[in-house]
Structure formats: C-alpha cells, structure tokens
Amino acid sequence: MVRIHPSILSADFVNLERDLARIATADGVHLDVMDAHFVPNLTFGLPMVQRIAEVTDLPIDVHLMIDDPDTWALQYAIGGVDSVTFHAEATRDAVALARELRARGTRAAIAVKPGTEVDLVAEHLREFDMVLVMTVEPGFGGQSFMPGMMPKLELLRGRARDLGIDVALQVDGGITDDTLPIAAAAGADVFVAGSAVYGHADPAERIAALRAAGGGEAVAAASGDAPAGSLER
Ligand code: DX5
Ligand code: ZN
User: Fold this and answer.
1) 30 three-state secondary structure
2) Secondary element (H or E) of residue 158
3) Rounded CA separation 20/34 (Å)
4) Could you say which of 12, 29, 177, 226 is the most buried, measured as most Cβ atoms within 10 Å of its Cβ?
5) 175 ligand 1 Cβ < 6 A
6) Euclidean distance between the first and final Cα of the chain, in Å?
7) What is the 27 CA–ligand 2 centroid distance (Å)?
8) Rounded distance, CA 40 to CA 65, Å?
9) pLDDT digits over 63-101, tens only?
10) For the whole prediction, is pTM greater than 0.85?
11) How far is residue 43's CA from residue 142's CA, in Å, rounded to a whole number?
C-alpha cells in the first residue's frame, strides 16, 4: 500500500489553510519541525502544529528535527497528531520515548539520517510504529534522492517480515515519480513529498501521480490478490 504524505515545508506559509485544503486527497500531512540546532534550518514548533491540527482532517505526521526530543517530543502527542517521529541521533533513550508516546495514544516513529545505520533500530523494531529512512540530509526541501539508502529499507523490511510485524517504513527527501518506485521496491510504504507536490500548480494531481508511480492505482483496482508487477507486499 502506497501512502503519500505531502510536506508543508514547500507550501506557502502565509496561505497554509488554503494549501492544506489542496492536499485533502493525501493520506496524511508531514510537518517538519526544525530548531536550527539539530539541523541548520528553522521552521515552526508546537503552536503551529496545534493550529494545523484544528484546520485539517488529515492525519498529522510530525517529523521532529530538534535536539533533545526526550524532553520535547511528548508535547506533540496531541489530538490530531497521528504519529511523532524523533531522530535516533538526537535521542538518549529511544525505546523509553517510543513507549511514552504510545502510552499517550500516538504512534511512535524513529528517523535515521543518511550517515546512521539501522542495525540498532532493527534490533528494537517492535518498539516503533514507523521508521523514517532519510533519503537526503535533513534540513531543506528540494534536494536529490540518495539511492544508497535503499539497503536500509531492505534490511528493515526483511526484519519486519521475520518478526511477523507490521511496521511502516517512511522515506523523506527527493521523492518524485521517478524515485518513489525505487523506494517502494526496497520496502518503503509511506512517502513524504514536498517539492514534488507543492512545487506544481495542482497538488492533488501530483498526489495522484505519485500514487500511480507506486502502483497505488493498480492495487486499489484489484479486488483479490495484488496484480502481477504490483509493488504491494
Ligand atoms: C527535509 C524534510 C523533508 C522535506 C522534503 O529535511 O524532512 O520533509 O520537506 O522535501 P522534498 O520532498 O522537496 O525533498
Ligand atoms: Zn521531513
């Protein structure tokens, strides 16, 4: 199953309510919280996330690119926020934090930067609802997809299969019609797209095109088994 989560990083912040309405057909909305410490860029924090939760019905996926998520991440476990993602590189006790988020009814996700291996995450895979494999260095939209990250997805998907658990694998950075199928083939099922959605006149058309690129239309049309060539596992 292909799920498309547009990132509002590439939206018009002055017309955010309008730009949220333009992605109503998406599967979720991805909010990039950046603190100018963990990453060089600065975006927005909790007040914005709270206000966005009030004006959209889409499930919200918060991507925290901040120092010290052990202290701050729980604040984001609010109504309307479906999942909170914190970075492995910034977290002291990822398992404890994931358990606290889940105890509050929020899905817990862990992210890894391109230079971070996923072996430790794979060891504790049951503790997370989603793993975000960054396919660019976090901080900015519009960068090029890093195909070298695909073995991480393959390792995690294989581990999930061995354990018999259902964990979402998200990719973020450089996702386009051309790169989405590469990540899908490696095991990703949640796709963040900023410039590929908001960098065009018709975001809804772009969401449909990305879904189709991942075989989403074929899967939706199938009544029984996934059709030959489908990317659904
Ligand atoms: C980058 C952010 C991404 C960003 C992706 O650090 O985490 O969510 O919006 O932008 P694109 O899709 O343009 O690479
Ligand atoms: Zn992101």
Assistant:
1) strand
2) helix 150-163
3) 19
4) 29
5) yes
6) 8
7) 15
8) 10
9) 999 999 999 999 999 999 999 999 999 999 999 999 999
10) yes
11) 15
